[in-house]
Amino acid sequence: MAHPLLEYAKAHHVPIIMEDGLSFLESLIKKHQVKSVLEIGTAIGYSALAMASLGCTVDTIEKDEAMFRLAEGFMHTYDIEKKVHLIHADALHYDGPLETYDLIFIDAAKAQYKKFFEKYTSYLNPKGIVVCDNLRFHDLKPENVNRHTKQLLKKIEAFKSFLKDHPTFETVFFDHGDGMSVSQRKEK
Ligand SMILES: C[S@@+](CC[C@H](N)C(=O)[O-])C[C@H]1O[C@@H](n2cnc3c(N)ncnc32)[C@H](O)[C@@H]1O
Question: Which pLDDT score is estimated for 176?
Fold first, then answer.
């Protein structure tokens, strides 16, 4: 039977990570022996709980009040080992305490990925990885979408170029999920 959070997300149209995206994320957690995660974009806590179930501690930031409250309720029921720490804040402006992390998972407002990346990589452990989702954005084509979406597509392309040209991070792009990237600091 599907997980209750997955059922809830489907029934209420909450955007969550795709199944193969989650499998990929889980394989990265195992491969890189990730113990601590910072997630930007909790929604109802589906991916956070999945990562916690692999033994990781997860700090996760959500700005939407309704989503945050839902996540709180779900963590109360399903996060038995209290591995998920929910933070109710706009990740662009959050300046509360954080640890350093083996994995930073960026899965929030697509137009802000560059800002999230720049702000939060200072909390990444030296061998840590940054994973971003939604870089394919459902394979939408600029000629078929409205002006707002066109702007968003431009921002995603600009973010991909930013990653490709980054002086200190190396990035590999994958088709998993809705298009995912994995970035790691270049060896000195
Ligand atoms: C795709 S959903 C996250 C899905 C979740 N990671 C999962 O797979 O279960 C994106 C979430 O990011 C949140 N979000 C968008 N911008 C944000 C910001 N600046 N700070 C924190 N959360 C943000 C949205 O409210 C939304 O709930």
Answer: 93
| Ligand 1 neighbourhood includes 90 CB (under 6 angstroms) | yes
Strands (E), the chain: 36-40, 57-62, 84-88, 101-106, 124-132, 169-174, 180-185
In whole numbers, what is the pLDDT of the chain averaged over residues?
A: 96
- C-alpha 188 to ligand 1 mean position (Å): 33
> What percent of the chain has pLDDT above 90?
90
As a CATH number, domain 4-134 is 3.40.50.150
**Measured CA distances, 75 to 17, 68, 82 (Å):** 18, 10, 8
What separation in Å is there between the alpha carbon of 39 and the centre of ligand 1?
9
Is residue 45 exposed (0-12), middle (13-18) or buried (19+ Cβ within 10 Å)? buried
Residues 6+ apart with CB under 8 A from 65: 88
pLDDT, tens digit, 9 for 90 and up, residues 18-38: 999 999 999 999 999 999 999
pTM of the entire predicted model = 0.97
Domain locations in the chain? Answer: 4-134
| Alpha carbons 178 and 155: distance in angstroms, whole number | 16
